[in-house]
Amino acid sequence: MLIYPAIDIFHNQCVRLRQGRIDDRTIYDIGPVEMAKLWEQKGARYLHVIDLDGALEGKSVNHDVIQELCQAVSIPVQVGGGIRRLEDIEGKLSAGAARVSIGTAAVKNPPFLQQALRKYGADKIIVGIDIKEGKAALEGWEESSEVDPLRLAVKVKALGVKTLVVTDIERDGMMTGPNLALCRQMKEATDLAIICSGGVATAEDLKALQQAGVEGAICGRALYDEKLVLSTVQEELL
User: Is 8 a catalytic residue?
Assistant: First the structure.
């Protein structure tokens, strides 16, 4: 199972949120590019980068710093936040991203997702399903919907998606343990590659996810607060 250190960018700073609330954030002294280099030095094999400004504004905002970040490391980077147009995807891939995550647009504009998959392929396009109070959340977690996440997962699978990033917003940044039941349901409903985000705090959490058939886990606060040592847990999960 892959562990993805998370780098969330807000106002050109590296931050961590609690439960997706932009007003409840921790700001780190080290910038996004240097943070990416640091995680690579610590043994990261893949990075998960989100343009929080972009997610909130519905357009790419931190493109330049993301391009610099992608070019500063030799490991692959998946990027999301504010991806609404094919030009946004093209820009991120041209900047060096290995793949691009589509979230809100997957719910609001399925034809766009279909176009993206047709043009770039399922190896370059993944879908992020953010869940709050049992429903899919949109626009940087600020907007609720009545969309059932399992039905959404089945729908995007039918369009050709192969990988889902599943985020339990209420657990995100809280280190209260991942939503194992949700991940199992997603895996059973779709048999897609599932990357879990939200709540991971211990090596036991990661092992439980691995046993549930989850292919990857995005880790933020647990790594930043050194509750988890990246190199150690990666060896345990081999």
Answer: yes
